[in-house]
């Protein structure tokens, strides 16, 4: 029986589900269980990790606190890289991350506890590239993204510094491209570096922002700006850019395109699970996430919910099932 997952197994299962199931509709699967409160749940839940998941964790926390008035949820979202250390040191009950744990992070945890950490897929995100609402760029290839953001340009592109080099005319043609991104503590920073920059290095001119909302707001305030962030942070004043990878068609980051969009990813939550059973407070919070009520909050935050098949797979990793509801 599966009691915990290596990150490789988790990723394989999620990718398998993505190819077998349809995500085109942003609706909660009626086959997911409804959450029912239980007696005696009280205490403090601490969460440290992903800025991308800050809003989602807050939405889950608010609903959970409504169900259990004697529960307090404390959330700190400074970046995915803070989650593994917090789980290892025991300073957080949950570690939300927008990327899988690195081998070194897993090894540090295992050295202390003699078992691996567990990461659960909670929802689906699309990492979007944003430009100002008045920027008419119709699409970007991964090679062009690499030429814009990377100093090493492993994708084979020439250096791209102006909008005119991307075919824009008029006022924007001669404008230098303003670059906005996350800092190195962010899982989004690492994911974009791996996928869009072909594991190359960022340019020194990328203006690193403390959070995803700040990236998008910076682009909204800068006609020549471009930045990357989770789709859930889209605001008025910006537009998302369709992307194309390796000669494929341009794909916009919409819910209808989630299975074909080249920067789709799973948002994860880490937990210290010893393979036996979860403490009641942790157990109930996880049950809530995978309930109909929990996945409604996923949609509210602009992400894509899991269906019943996926939820069952994730619950298995902490020895839970729909029969526990």
From TrEMBL:
Q: Where does the record locate the signal sequence feature?
A: 1-26
Q: Which UniProt keywords apply?
A: Phosphate transport, Signal, Transport
Report whether Acetylation shows up as a keyword of the record.
no
- Gene3D superfamilies membership: Periplasmic binding protein-like II
Q: Which residues form a coiled coil?
A: none
Q: Which ranges carry the PBP domain?
A: 41-293
The yes or no answer to whether the keyword Transport is present is yes
Note one Pfam family from the annotation.
PBP_like_2
Q: Name the InterPro entries on file.
A: PBP_domain (IPR024370), Phos-bd (IPR011862), Phosphate_ABC_transporter (IPR050811)
Listed GO biological process terms: phosphate ion transport
Cite a single GO MF annotation: phosphate ion binding
- Purpose of the protein: Involved in the system for phosphate transport across the cytoplasmic membrane.
The family line of this record is: Belongs to the PstS family.
Q: What is this protein called?
A: Phosphate-binding protein
Source species: Blastopirellula marina DSM 3645
């Amino acid at each position: 029986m599966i009691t915990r997952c290596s990150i490789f197994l988790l990723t394989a299962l999620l990718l398998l589900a993505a190819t077998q199931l349809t995500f085109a509709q942003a609706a909660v699967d009626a086959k997911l269980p409804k959450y029912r409160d239980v007696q005696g749940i009280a205490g403090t839940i601490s969460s440290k990790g992903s800025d991308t998941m800050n809003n989602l964790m807050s939405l889950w926390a608010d609903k959970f606190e409504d169900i259990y008035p004697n529960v307090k949820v404390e959330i700190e979202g400074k970046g995915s890289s803070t989650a593994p250390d917090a789980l290892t040191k025991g300073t957080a009950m949950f570690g939300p991350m927008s990327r899988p744990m690195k081998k070194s992070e897993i090894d540090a945890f295992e050295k202390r506890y003699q078992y691996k950490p567990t990461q659960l897929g909670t929802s689906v995100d699309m990492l979007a590239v944003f430009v100002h609402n008045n920027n008419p760029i119709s699409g970007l290839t991964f090679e062009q993204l690499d030429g814009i953001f990377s100093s090493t340009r492993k994708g084979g592109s020439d250096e791209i510094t102006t909008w005119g080099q991307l075919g824009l005319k008029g006022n924007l043609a001669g404008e230098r491209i303003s670059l906005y991104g996350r800092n190195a503590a962010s899982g989004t920073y690492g994911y974009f570096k791996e996928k869009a920059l072909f594991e190359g290095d960022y340019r020194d001119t990328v203006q690193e922002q403390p959070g995803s909302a700040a990236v998008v707001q910076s682009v909204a305030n800068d006609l020549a700006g471009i930045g990357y962030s989770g789709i859930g942070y889209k605001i008025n004043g910006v537009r998302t850019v369709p992307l194309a990878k390796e000669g494929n068609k341009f794909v916009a980051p919409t819910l209808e395109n989630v299975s074909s969009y080249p920067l789709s990813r799973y948002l994860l939550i880490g937990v210290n699970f010893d393979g036996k059973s979860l403490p009641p407070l942790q157990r109930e919070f996880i049950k809530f996430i995978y309930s109909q009520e929990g996945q409604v909050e996923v949609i509210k935050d602009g992400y894509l919910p899991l269906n019943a098949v996926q939820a069952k797979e994730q619950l298995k990793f902490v020895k839970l099932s729909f029969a526990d509801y």
